[in-house]
Amino acid sequence: MTVRVEHIVKHFGRSSEAAAVADVSFEAQPKAITTLLGPSGSGKSTLLRLIAGLETPDSGRVFIEGQEVTALSPQHRNVGFVFQSYALFRHMTVAENIAFGMKIRRLPKEQVNKRVAELLALVQLPEYGSRFPAQLSGGQRQRVALARALAIEPKVLLLDEPFGALDTQVRLELREWLISLHEQTGITTILVTHDQEEALELSQHVVLLNKGKVAQAGSPHDLYDHPADEFVASFLGGANVIKSHVSDGEAKVGTQSVRAPVGAQEGTPVQAFVRPHNMRVRRPNGDNPVDLGKIERLTRVGGYVKVYVSLPSGESVVVLMSKGDLEALHVEPGDAVAVDVVDAKVFVQSYSI
Amino acid sequence: MSGIVTQRAKSAQRRDTQVGESAFVRVLLIAIALGFLGIFLVAPIATIFSAAFSKGVEPYWTALTQDDTVSAIWLTLLTAGISVPLNVVFGVAAAWLISKYDFWGKSVLVTVVDLPFSVSPVISGLIFVLLFGARGWFGPFLSEHDVKIIFAVPGIVMATTFVTFPLVARELIAVMQAQGSDEEEAALTLGASGLQILLRITLPKVRWGLLYGVILCNARAMGEFGAVSVVSGHIRGLTNTLPLQVEILYNEYNFVGAFAVSSLLCALALVTLCVKKVAEWSVSSRQAKRDASARALAVPASTAVNLEGMLP
After folding, report:
1. ipTM here
2. Looking at the structure, do residues B85 and B161 belong to the same domain, yes or no?
């Protein structure tokens, strides 16, 4: 039950323009949720449509369960596709919507009715079978679209920004619900999203796309803890960017020195990416005053405090500390503090940014 | 801040007083609208019916049951009966093509669909004379095989079909483009074939637009004068449609006859409007029924939730 794409290329419009998908290869993990993550315009939705057959690649191949389906029409691919707009049939009731794929397959009527009832129960809308899509809320439509896609017992479930059009509260609920639904069905799922939090929380495997190419693929932890480049580091989880340069094989970040990337020459400009929770502020203790930063602002977020510190280099960074730790320091805005870095990723600065 | 508030309050007040003061203006506007309607719509229709019945019901009935008029009625029904279904097929195909696919020359096709509207109906008729007339391109071939198109029923049907072509297509293109093709794509991933998608998704989706297009197309097909006049040849009892019959009767100073036939066309227009209104009304009442049934369904569900919440 795997999906594999090999060297997919897809252009829209004139071929001189940049490709929407430029030579992408990846494999979705069987029975897991794989996320195609990326900013808008990264080609993630196009890639999903290519897997479903709704777009034809210029070159490259698509495999579902080991069979090549590149030339197969979407009609025969047996994939469940959930559209961002839900695309429910507006002139049919919820039950008719769910039954559509089974009626096309000419399943016996009793079997169809039984399965519709099961699916309505599965998506927690048992009393809504005779309603029309226009009478449902966004979250309910989303679940009907999922039930309709699941009704054909697809080999793979493809979700295009499934929670994009919903408000935060509903989105969080549906996210939880989707995880439990996936546990029940165990169906191989590929999900497109631009929300890194959604990707980290929902999926076992993340394919991060940028400008039509795979920036990095791996488990959410891999991408978060070991970003391959500065795009991955800045896109995932949010990070402070601190400019520095290599001296003696090290780069100075805050009050500390971090090992420079292998092969970086003396004096090379570098960028350090530091997660807000991987930094600490403390009272100065014999540090060189030149290295000290100044607290600009303190913002309380639940049990944590966001400490905005301006560094001597002029950069402003956010440090996330627990409320208790910070209170023990007795610091206030305007105080000079030392900034320690627990963990940082240093990249040779690219001038593309 | 307070300045803004008072200003707003003032402007709101001014709007109110303006509305209050405008009673005279309102009456004037309504009078203009009614006067205009009276002169340009009600009076002509009233004239038609009063002239038709000016000598009583019997002459009216005699005029309508005259052989030539009866055959004109049949010819008109036949023409509409052929050209409307043809245009439904053409219109659905063209609208489907234009709204669902991107291809080279699409904008040219969209323009060409509107061509019959932008060309004078006389020219539309003349095109067919030039093509199929005795001295037309296909003229020699047709006369050799003894096929008559111009000054015969096929020519009338062709000219009518040509003139009314945009009505269904335009209506459908607008509806289909507004609705997008997400639902069609969804049906495709669910395993539906092209024909199944057309019959089960697209046509049900656009059915009211289609009905409206058909109604307009039918009205125009029965009422078309210019193009049909050129190709018909005005052969009494054979190639005269209702509008042509009106002209002939009028030119012969048979006013009762002319207005009697006109009253038929007029009645057709009124029936068309009624059908359209009924179609719209049935849509809204069906929607209301759906809403009501949904509300009825929702009540037990919400009570159940409330009861659950109240349980200790």
Report:
1. 0.78
2. yes
